[in-house]
Amino acid sequence: DQQVKQNSPSLSVQEGRISILNCDYTNSMFDYFLWYKKYPAEGPTFLISISSIKDKNEDGRFTVFLNKSAKHLSLHIVPSQPGDSAVYFCAASAQTGANNLFFGTGTRLTVIP
Amino acid sequence: GAVVSQHPSWVICKSGTSVKIECRSLDFQATTMFWYRQFPKQSLMLMATSNEGSKATYEQGVEKDKFLINHASLTLSTLTVTSAHPEDSSFYICSARGQGWTEAFFGQGTRLTVV
């Protein structure tokens, strides 16, 4: 049972525009959410996180929004750059720093120059 | 961020042989290390969690006798796939976390192909 879902397997965006990657979850016990970026044949790299006490967290070009009532989070990248092209995973845990991170299946972002 | 190195990055082995994958934290002490497996077009699935000096905790459905995990020091954990079969072919990734940290940092992964 997939507790974290990324329903869009791929997304293409023009350079300079905004990229919006979406993630939905089913477990109401999740209270900590992370986004990872992954290049082919490499491990994921941590991007940004948010705890359930906040609804927005911003770090440079990356902003994560959390809608707890909808069990939905999104990652906004603005402006998008060709180097942002990668697979993005969202992940969730039921406790900050908990062992078990539940990952989505990933969204492949392609930023077109 | 902290650096986690995983070795080898890819390996091909014959069916029935064993393969060892190393995960090292290069610039911090990793009190906890995690091993994940990723099948094509699927999410990362946690296999086991290991704390330095103690036995690993395996997730449901993961055979502990097949996937041997050793976390003998604060900078090294190993995953040994014993008697590998073609269905064990996958991308294996480790991550490591220091004491009190909220984020874990990932290694670059190991592509295992069993022929």
Tell me the distance between the termini of chain B: 36 Å
* Sequence of secondary-structure elements of chain A: EEEEEEEEEEE
Low-confidence stretches of chain B: none
Number of helices of chain B: 0
Biggest β-sheet description of chain A: 6 strands, mixed
Largest interface, counted by CB within 8 Å of the partner chain's CB: A-B, 25 and 31 residues
- What is the 3D shape of chain A? globular
Q: Mean pLDDT score of chain A, rounded?
A: 91
**First-to-last CA distance of chain A:** 37 Å
Number of helices of chain A: 0
Quaternary structure = heterodimer
Please outline what is shown here.
The complex is a heterodimer of chains A (113) and B (115). Chain A is built from no helices and 11 strands.
Describe the structure.
The complex is a heterodimer of chains A (113) and B (115). Chain A has 113 residues and is mainly β. Chain A is globular and about 40 Å long. Chain A is 0% helix and 53% strand. In chain A, β7 and β8 (72-77) form a beta hairpin. In chain A, strands 2, 4, 5, 9, 10 and 11 form a six-stranded mixed beta sheet that branches. Chain A is built from no helices and eleven strands. Chain B has 115 residues and is an all-beta fold. Chain B has strands at 4-7, 10-13, 19-25, 32-38, 44-51, 57-58, 67-73, 76-81, 90-97, 105-106, 110-114. In chain B, the strands form two sheets. In chain B, strands 2, 4, 5, 6, 9, 10 and 11 form a seven-stranded mixed beta sheet that branches. The relative contact order of chain B is 0.33. The chains are: A mainly beta (113), B mainly beta (115). Chains A and B meet through β4, β5 and β10 of A and β5, β9 and β10 of B.
Give descriptors for this structure:
heterodimer, A: 113 residues, mainly beta, 6-stranded mixed beta sheet, 5-stranded antiparallel beta sheet, 11 strands, globular, B: 115 residues, 7-stranded mixed beta sheet, 4-stranded antiparallel beta sheet, 0% helix
